[in-house]
Amino acid sequence: MGLGKVALRPLAEELSYVSLGGGSISGPAGAGEADACDDALVSYDLAVWDGDRPLDNHQAGLTYDELYERYLESDDVVVPPAPRIVAYVEALVARYPDDVGRSVVWASPPVIEEASGPIVYLLMSYGKAEEVSEYAAALAREHGLICFDPQGECLRP
């Protein structure tokens, strides 16, 4: 399931990030930095989950870490996505289809395969990230879900 937890390190003043071992580059890396990740996908990631809204970004980060570790990090325990997550993903892919092999939006289609229990991890192609992430965050609010940016370590409004 998924690419694994992403370790990030800032590369430049504009805060581009390169994933270390996770298989994706998040943000536009400079020419020299990308050499180590030639096979990597360029993506912007969001996590969306069902639960109480954290009080702040720190609490959200702790909740995200716990949910990621419990539901997404291990392939040993397979938990079907919760009904609210399924409904959210269905609404999301109704607007931005996740056709395998033809998707220009999703870095890891089908999106539902990145869902487990109360959480889904969204990997968006970097070129569409601004448009899709805004919609994904707004849709999460409409569904009463929490949207968190694990790269920026912040809740999405």
What features would you describe in this structure?
- The chain is of the alpha+beta class and 157 residues long.
- The chain is 27% helix and 21% strand.
- The chain has 3 helices and 8 strands, in the order ββββααββαββ.
- It has helices spanning 57-72, 83-95, 129-142; strands at residues 8-10, 17-19, 24-26, 41-49, 115-116, 119-125, 146-149, 154-155.
- Strands 1, 2, 3, 4, 5, 6, 7 and 8 form an 8-stranded mixed sheet that branches.
- Strand 2 (17-19) and strand 3 form a beta hairpin.
- The longest helix has 16 residues, at 57-72.
- It is globular, with a radius of gyration of 15 Å.
- It starts with 7 loop residues before the first strand and ends with a strand.
Features:
disordered N terminus; 8 strands; single chain; alpha+beta; 157 residues; 8-stranded mixed beta sheet
* Inertia-based shape: globular
SSE class? alpha+beta
> What percent of residues are in strands?
15-25%
Helix content: 25-40%
Number of helices: 3
Q: What is the CA-CA span between the terminal residues? A: 27 Å
Residue runs with pLDDT of under 50 for 5 or more positions: 1-41
Major sheet, described briefly? Answer: 8 strands, mixed
Radius of gyration: 15 Å
Task: Quote the average pLDDT.
Answer: 79
What is the number of E strands?
Answer: 8
Q: Oligomeric state of the chains?
A: single chain
Helix-strand string? EEEEHHEEHEE
